[in-house]
Amino acid sequence: MNTENTATPRQRWALFCITKKDYRNEILSKEEAARLIKELGTPDYKKKSNKSLSAELLDYLKEHFDEMFAGAVKSLSVKSILEDDDHVPADKKKRYAFIGFGCAITYFKYRKNNKRAEEINKAQSKFRFGEIEKMFLSKFTAKERNYYKNIGCPLEAIWTQDQNMQLSYYHTVREFAKSKGIEMEVISRLD
User: What pTM, to 2 d.p., does this model score?
Assistant: First the structure.
């Protein structure tokens, strides 16, 4: 192939921007590069969303809500009773209902200069205590919600504090981030 007729560095850069494939070492003529840029540069090649990253996250969470909910519901089947320790007199001991795997602190770890990860983290927090929590609560009847409230473990508290529920939610958010090429690690520990 004649080196005068090979694709220019600008053409190769344009192809990289469109496809995210490195064309620097590819044997490619100017005509082939021009054809690929025209063909791949069309809106049909890779549809860009006009939605913000946080709006896309909300759609993703809603789309995967049933999977998240199924994972979270496992926590509701774990029922325990906590009582004061042995140094409290028997007639003054109190017992408490405890639902779930245990209270936890869960958060994301990511490069602090990653603005897109930061946007996802802020949005997930807003949705976790907003729309997604409402979706979670809407799965229960008023009678079921009152039951959990009356035993001292309102569903809102279980949703917020239970490690299994947190992990179910956070892993879903992480999968969304991964689909966008953003690395976010889920860190969780019992509190």
Answer: 0.69
